[in-house]
Amino acid sequence: MYTLYHQDGTRSTAALLALEEGGLEYEVRQVDISSGRHRDAEFLALNPRGLIPVLITETGEVIGETAAIMLYLADRHRLTDLAPLPEEPGRGALHDWLFYHVGEVQATSKIVRYAHRYSTDPDDVPRIRTQMNRALVERWKIVDRHLAEHGPYHLGERFSLVDLYLATTAAWFTPGLHTLGLDSLPAVKRCCELVASRPRSGPVLARHTQGMSELNSHGFPD
Q1: What are the two backbone dihedrals, phi and then psi, of residue 37, each rounded to the nearest 5 degrees?
Q2: Rounded to the nearest 10 degrees, how much is the dihedral formed by the CA atoms of 145, 110, 65, 8?
Q3: What's 83's DSSP letter?
Q4: CATH 1.20.1050.10, the chain: domain bounds
Q5: Three-state secondary structure along 102-171?
Q6: Contact, 85 vs 77, CB < 8 A?
Q7: Burial zone of 78 (CB within 10 Å; 0-12 exposed, 13-18 middle, 19+ buried)
Q8: Cβ–Cβ < 8 Å for 55, 4
Q9: Is there a contact between 168 and 14 (Cβ–Cβ < 8 Å)?
Q10: Which CATH class is domain 91-218?
Q11: Domain 2-76 belongs to what topology?
Q12: What angle do CA 78, 159, 180 make, to 5 degrees?
C-alpha cells in the first residue's frame, strides 16, 4: 500500500489523481499547511524540503515531487491508460508537456501568488505580480493553442497524466490575483471538464477546488 502526505487544494492533488486513476491501493495522511504542519520536525524528518506531496512507496522509498510520483506510479505499474510505455510513441510528448507544466506554468503561477518572496521592497510586489501575470498568460495560451489544434488532450485523443496535472493547476486561477481565467482558455477549459467528468477524478477535483477555496480564505503559508 502507498501512503500519500497530502492536502486538498495543493499540487499534491495531481499525485492523488494518479493513484486514484491507476486503481492503486493507498492511504492519505492529511498535512495542514495553513497551520504549518509541513514545518513540523516529524514531517521534516520525512521530507527535509518541507513540501507536499510525499509518497511512501510499497518498499518504503520516499518520493517528494509531484511529477516524479506520477511517472513512478505509471512505470511501476505499467499504467498504460495514463502514460505510454517508455518505448511507445507519445512518451516523449508526455514528458515534454508534463515538465512544461511543472517548470513553466506552475512555476510562474507560484511567483504570481508569492510575489512578496522575490523582493525585500514591498513596493516591488505589484510590479512583480503584474509582470509574471503577463508571462503566465503567455504560457497558458501555448497550452490552449496546442489543445485546440491537437486535443482534446495533450496527447490528442489519448488521456494521460499531463491532463491530470493540468486540471490540478488550472483550478488555481484566483480572481484578484491572476489576470486570467478558464473562460479565456476554451481548449484548456474543455480538457478540465473532460478530466472532471471521469468517475475517479471528479470527486478528487471537487475536493481540490474546495480545498483551494479554504486555503485562499485562510491564507497560504509563506
Answers
A1: -65, -25
A2: -90
A3: S
A4: 91-218
A5: HHHHHHHHHHHHCHHHHCCCHHHHHHHHHHHHHHHHHHHHHHHHHHHHHCCECEECECCHHHHHHHHHHC
A6: no
A7: exposed
A8: yes
A9: yes
A10: mainly alpha
A11: Glutaredoxin (3.40.30)
A12: 130
Sheet holding 54-56, edge to edge: 26-30, 2-6, 54-56, 62-63
Q: Which amino acid is at 219?
A: G
| Buried/exposed code over 178-187 (b: 16+ C-beta within 10 A; e: otherwise) | bebebeebeb
C-alpha cell read off for 166: 493540468
| pLDDT of the chain, 222 residues: tens digit per residue | 999 999 999 999 999 999 999 999 999 999 998 888 888 898 999 999 999 999 999 999 999 999 999 999 999 999 999 999 999 999 999 999 999 999 999 999 999 988 999 999 999 999 999 999 999 999 999 999 999 999 999 999 999 999 999 999 998 887 767 777 889 999 999 999 999 999 999 999 999 999 888 887 766 665
Terminal Cα-to-Cα distance of the chain (whole angstroms)? 32
3-state secondary structure of 209: helix
Residue 178 CA, distance from chain mean position: 17
Report the predicted TM-score, pTM, of the whole model to 2 decimal places. 0.94
Which residues of the chain form CATH 3.40.30.10? 2-76
